[in-house]
Design a protein that fits this description.
Elements (H helix, E strand, L loop, with lengths): L5 H4 L15 H12 L10 E7 L3 H8 L3 H7 L4 E8 L55 H9 L3 H18 L3 E5 L4 H7 L6 E10 L9 H8 L7 H4 L3
Antiparallel strand pairs: 1-2, 2-4, 3-4
C-alpha cells in the first residue's frame, strides 16, 4: 500500500464509544473550524450544523430520530452532530452563510488581505483550473452563474466539510462514525430547522470505547479486519 499520512491511515469508524468521555468546548470548536475551511464550489459554503453533547436537549432530539439499531451505540458518543445543507436562493443568489462574514464569504486568515485563496482551492468545472479571485474581471451575470455552479452540489460540499472534520477528529485523538439512515423530516421538525435547510448526515463523535460492550451482532464488525477494494479496481483507465 502507498504511504499515507497517519491522520488518514489510522482513521476508522467505530461503534464502540467511551460512555464517560466528554467533548471539550475547544475540541468541538476545532472540529467545526476544520469543517468551515473545507473546499466549496463557488465558495457557497452550504453546510450547516447542529451540535448536541451527550444528554443535552439537542443530542436527545437527534438520538430520538435515529433507528433503534443505531441508538444502541450512538447514545454513548460524546456528541452527535447533525450535518445539513442549504439550497441556492430561488432568486438566483447563492444562500448566504448565517452570521457576519468577510466580503469573500468567510473569515480571512492573516496575510490574505480580505481575498479568497485561489491556488489549491477546489475549482468549479469550466474555470480553467482556478477559482476567481478578488480583482478579477466579473463576467456578466456572475450572481446567477454562482448559483448555477452551486446548484445540485450542496451535498457534495457538505461531504467535504464532514471529511475535513473527520481528519481533524483523528488529529485530536477522537473517532467519528457517520449515519445517513434516520428520520430526516422528523429531525428537521424536532430541531425546528429553518426552511431550506436539509438534514443529510448525523455524525457521532467521541473517544474509543470497549468493543465488547457492543451487542454481539455488532462486535464482529468492530474487531474484524478493515478491508478496501484494490486500487486497480477503482481506476477506470
Amino acid at each position: 500500500m502507498a504511504d499515507l499520512t497517519p491522520l488518514l491511515a489510522f482513521r476508522w469508524s467505530p461503534r464502540a464509544f467511551d460512555p464517560a468521555a466528554e467533548l471539550a468546548p475547544a475540541e468541538a470548536a476545532s472540529l467545526l473550524e476544520a469543517a468551515r475551511w473545507a473546499p466549496s464550489v463557488g465558495n457557497g459554503q452550504p453546510w450547516r450544523f447542529a451540535l448536541g453533547h451527550r444528554d443535552d436537549e439537542t443530542q436527545k432530539r437527534i438520538l430520538a430520530n435515529l433507528p433503534a439499531t443505531e441508538q444502541r451505540w450512538a447514545r454513548h458518543a460524546a456528541a452527535l452532530l447533525l450535518g445539513a445543507h442549504v439550497r441556492p436562493d430561488p432568486t438566483g443568489t447563492a444562500a448566504s452563510p448565517t452570521g457576519t462574514a468577510s466580503p469573500t464569504g468567510h473569515a480571512s486568515p492573516a496575510g490574505l488581505a480580505g481575498r479568497t485563496p485561489c491556488a489549491g482551492d477546489a475549482s468549479p468545472a469550466g474555470l480553467a483550473g482556478r477559482t476567481p479571485c478578488a480583482g478579477d474581471a466579473s463576467p456578466a451575470g456572475s450572481a446567477g452563474a454562482a448559483s448555477s455552479l452551486l446548484g445540485g452540489r450542496e451535498a457534495y460540499d457538505l461531504g467535504q466539510a464532514v471529511a475535513h472534520l473527520t481528519v481533524q477528529a483523528t488529529a485530536l485523538g477522537l473517532y467519528v462514525r457517520q449515519i445517513l439512515g434516520f428520520d430526516h423530516a422528523g429531525l428537521a421538525d424536532d430541531l425546528e430547522l429553518p426552511a431550506g435547510v436539509h438534514p443529510l448526515v448525523v455524525v457521532a463523535v467521541g473517544r474509543l470505547g470497549d468493543p465488547f460492550s457492543l451487542p454481539e451482532e455488532l462486535r464482529h464488525h468492530e474487531t474484524g479486519l478493515r478491508r478496501r477494494r484494490p486500487l486497480a479496481d477503482l481506476l477506470l483507465r
